[in-house]
Amino acid sequence: MLASAAQAAEAGKVVFVTGQVSVAARPLALDAAVQEGDELTTGADGYVYVKTVDQGFLVLRPNSKARIVAYHIDAQNPANTRVKLELLQGVARSISGVGVKQARQNFRFNTPVAAIGVRGTDFVVYTDQQTSRVTVMSGGVVVSGFAGSCGPEGGGPCEGGASRELFAGQAGLMLQVQRGQTSPQLLRSPVMSPADQGAPARPDEPVGKVGGSSPGADVNLDAQKSNNVLNNSKQISQSNVTPGGGASVPPLVDQQPETVVPPVKPVTPPVLPPVVTRGPEEVIWGRYAAIAGGKVDAATQAKIKDGAYDLEMVLGPYNIARLKSTAYVAPREGTASFVLTGSDAVLQRAGGNWVQATVENAQLDVDFATRTFKTSLNVVGDNMRVPYSVAGNISQKGELVNPNQITDNRIKGYLGGANVEEAAYLFQYKSNLVTVNGATKWSR
């Protein structure tokens, strides 16, 4: 053990610390060296910025725990570089240093449920033991859930059919991985972003060049300005830090060199009206039968029967309908992928009772030129994982239909929206062992 400790390499130095922050149960001080193998922990008011030996950064926000598994940089032979970080809980920000950018294939950032690789990147991660969420500030990431050849013990990115990429140009999106989920979900909801998990960034948090939009976009730290920010932050003490970790400032702060981008003056955000008037939903679905402990969706049933909706279709305990006033006009060519935004499902083992289930790993792709679609998902419930997959046709009215109605996998649904930016469908799977019914809603 002593020999191992003596050989541990220095990963970086603490350039800012405030609140309760510790390493191996000892308080962590400013300018302290952080070694390979160290486990850093922050309390409810704790923030720590570690500047790595290759001029990158690892930032931990409150109530977080991270481990420096390996940080070996070989500038002469980047193939020998090995960097592996683990976020065990909480919120962390990782900004790639020079060494990582030269050997991205040898960088791994693990959470309890996912592996993250980089394309030369500045990203933020939130995790607990069940769910991880990743947002990208600059560059891109490749994310995969742990399964098969992608295990927590590996190094470098997990790249394969189950992995997904996210780049900074995809504004407002994030990747989410839940325990047992192999392929990450692409989500739009900003409410669930890492910055909103009770651990906002401080105003002085170091950042790279925000907003790179292409897969080749890279972190472009301005060394002079980053050092100025960090030197100023060293002057912050408990006497001038707002209780609770300082002001809640969004992490998307562009700190590019002032010679390129002029300073942005603070602007008071406009006050939005509490109620936004919108027209009725184009496609709606709900339960028309009480099942698996759930109730009839009375509000949806009332809408379907009020005369504004027609083309009602039924599958299992669900029904779906579209506005009468809708005129479906689709592109004549091109393809589109859709992101799952809502779902409901029930499952029944042979001879058993209906139980509530969840939908995971959902995908929907549309080919407008051939007027076809393909979709797949997993339904999880009652200790079962049931795969569902179907390919079908799109009618002139925008209906999703099976080419062959005599099948174990059935689907009924619609494409909708002014630019075909929405979709919704009901699905059913039957076998000798299990029956599954569900409903989904999608956004392009």
From TrEMBL:
Pfam families linked to this entry: FecR
Entry superkingdom: Bacteria
Gene3D superfamilies the record matches: 2.60.120.1440
InterPro entries named in the record: FecR (IPR006860)
Domain (FecR protein) ranges: 38-141
Region annotation Disordered: where it falls in the sequence: 180-265
Biased composition (Polar residues): 223-242
Protein known as: FecR protein domain-containing protein
Source organism per UniProt: Duganella vulcania
